[in-house]
Each structure stands twice: as structure tokens, then as C-alpha cells.
Amino acid sequence: MGYRFFTDGLCRKCGTSAMYYCDHCGLYFCDDHLIKVKVPDSPKFFVFCEKCQKAKKKPIDPYREHTPSIHKT
Fold it and tell me: CA-CA distances (angstroms) from residue 72 to 68, 69?
């Protein structure tokens, strides 16, 4: 969760390159500024920004894969 295949962005707090984004609001955050929340009974985790975590927001798409899958042809 929290990973887009070809798109990187800039962290909203410090401006460094980031590839993870909040699963609710979609804003990019670097490893230092994101919050990972483990999914119960699963090895997966959700990525949230501080604002969405404090508001206890839910992920927009809870079934999205954490890592990109290779296109099967």
C-alpha cells in the first residue's frame, strides 16, 4: 500500500524525493515523515500522513497491493 508504480513525488514536509504516499489523501511523504500502520493479521501495512493518522482516516482502497506487480501477458 502506498506505492505507485512509475510515479514519484516530493515530500510535503521537507521536499525530498519520495515514493510513498498517504493511502487516504494521496500526498507524498519521505521515509522520515510517513506513518506505517500494520494491517491486523496480515504482513501488509497502510501508509498515512500525520494529519490523516490523527483523524483516524481509512484508506481509500484497502485492497491495493503494497508493491507493484509485474504485468502478466
Answer: 12, 9
Q: Is 6 helix (H, G, I), strand (E, B) or coil?
A: coil
Q: For residues 6 and 56, give the distance between their C-alpha atoms in angstroms, rounded to a whole number.
A: 28
Per-residue pLDDT tens for 10-40? 888 888 888 888 888 888 888 888 888 887 7
pLDDT confidence of residue 69: 45
DSSP 38: E
Give the pLDDT score at 73.
43
For the chain, the residue count is 73
What does DSSP say about strands 17-18 and 9-10: parallel, antiparallel, or unpaired? antiparallel
Burial class (CB in 10 A: 0-12, 13-18, 19+), 15: exposed
